[in-house]
Task: inverse folding
């Protein structure tokens, strides 16, 4: 509905900018009678959404259905095969099937555009693909899921745990009834897959992305990170390393709270790109909602109306290269470890011995007492160490008889 409302409200300025009237030919959804808060009676209705893609009087099909298969996929494929450009907000579809669909668009001489699929109202796709096209991109990263950022901000502000804040976010409509796509990191991963491809001219490869969500983050994690000068953010990051390989992940990380990304709170998203001529560019805005999403969708429609032409991922499909991914084990990282251990004499010595053996030096160590006789929290911040050693230490620590549950570990990302 957001797109229809925007086109009605802003039709004049869009006409001025494109020299064309954008006409909505027909619409479709599951239910015709559902109350959508606006009158659709003056628009033609198709019971079968795929019929939209076959109409001779349609130039562009908007796919706002969602999902990586089913109706969304059939609609996009049919439209492209029938020589119609497609505007989609569907990152899941593109992350999984974007290579094939971009190729289909090229073969049929039409365009597949997706500004709304990454960070909602932020013009991140155009910013990176068009605005920074003259740069070699070193790194792109961001807060790509407003639901997770809202939950993390709210946990910090209120001191409450993940489950309580998620339940509240669901009541407020910031989180879906089935929250997995958001809180387990997959939605952000779909978006990062698209950003990484545009940044580095590489083929989309969602399956190789490391993804971890925010379910295991506890209120004490957030509070202690705050005391140490950090915010916990679900970060999607892709960067080219000096050997040409690409490091990429979506996971909760600690970022300095004074960093620009650390200051992005609540439902806001942010996308940061670093180019070799432009340096760092940061875009912040609303990543979801009817208005911001419509703004992004219509920006693609405006491009089509103006006759602008761009390969879906910024590079013709045949010129996209396979991404050579970095070997995580060889990277040097500082980490935050949260162990829950039995309060016994000699416990710290056992922990320290493992760090010594794995050649990891400790930057700070905090012990939080619980109630008498209960396990205690041990928080360790390390200096940078080889990640293979950090993983080995984690395994050894988790196996100690004094450790009562698997530790929670997060990378510290200086940005
Ligand atoms: N919501 C956002 O803020 C936002 C932001 C950026 C991108 N997106 C993307 O936009 C897409 C849609 O998300 P949404 O949140 O707007 O979902 P939504 O509120 O559930 O809307 C989906 C629409 O598709 C229609 N639909 C679903 N299945 C259909 C089918 N089998 N046949 C015909 N119509 C069908 C629904 O019809 P009924 O209304 O009749 O059920 C509804 O109009 C997703 O790809 C999402 O990732 C959303």
Result:
């Amino acid at each position: 509905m957001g797109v229809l409302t925007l086109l009605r409200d802003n039709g004049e300025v869009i006409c001025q900018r494109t020299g064309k009237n954008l006409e909505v030919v027909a619409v479709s959804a599951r239910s015709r009678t559902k109350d959508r808060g606006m009158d659709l009676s003056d628009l033609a209705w198709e019971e079968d959404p795929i019929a939209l893609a076959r109409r001779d009087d349609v130039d562009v099909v908007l796919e706002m259905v969602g999902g990586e298969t089913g109706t969304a996929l059939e609609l996009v494929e049919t439209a492209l095969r029938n020589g119609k450009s497609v505007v989609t907000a569907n990152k899941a579809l593109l992350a999984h099937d974007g290579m094939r669909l971009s190729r289909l668009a090229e073969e049929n001489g039409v365009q597949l555009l997706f500004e709304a699929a990454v960070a909602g109202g932020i013009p991140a796709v155009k910013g990176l693909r068009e605005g920074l096209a003259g740069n070699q991109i070193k790194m792109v990263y961001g807060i790509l899921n407003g639901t997770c950022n809202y939950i993390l901000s709210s946990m910090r502000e209120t001191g409450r745990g993940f489950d309580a804040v998620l339940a509240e976010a669901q009541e407020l409509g910031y989180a879906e009834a089935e929250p997995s796509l958001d809180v387990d990191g997959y939605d952000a991963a779909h978006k990062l897959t698209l950003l990484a491809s545009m940044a580095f001219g590489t083929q989309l490869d969602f399956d190789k992305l490391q993804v971890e969500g925010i379910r295991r983050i506890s209120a004490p994690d957030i509070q202690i990170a705050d005391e140490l000068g950090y915010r916990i953010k679900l970060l999607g990051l892709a960067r080219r390393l000096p050997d040409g390989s690409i490091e990429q992940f979506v996971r909760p990380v600690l970022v300095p709270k004074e960093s620009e990304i650390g200051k992005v709170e609540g439902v806001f998203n942010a996308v940061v790109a670093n180019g070799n001529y432009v340096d760092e560019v940061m875009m912040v805005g609303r990543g979801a909602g009817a208005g911001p999403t419509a703004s992004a969708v219509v920006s693609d429609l405006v491009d089509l109306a103006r006759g602008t032409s761009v390969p879906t991922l910024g590079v013709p499909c045949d010129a996209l290269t396979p991404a050579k991914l970095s070997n995580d084990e060889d990277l040097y990282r500082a980490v935050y470890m949260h162990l829950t251990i039995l309060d016994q004499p000699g416990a710290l010595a056992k922990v320290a011995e493992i760090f010594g053996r794995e050649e990891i030096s400790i930057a700070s160590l905090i012990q939080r007492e619980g109630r008498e006789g209960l396990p205690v929290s041990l928080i360790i911040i390390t200096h940078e160490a080889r990640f293979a050693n950090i993983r080995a230490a984690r395994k050894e620590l988790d196996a100690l008889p004094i450790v009562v549950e698997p530790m929670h570990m997060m990378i510290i990302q200086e940005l």
About this structure: The domain at 328-412 is CATH 3.30.70.260 (Alpha-Beta Plaits).
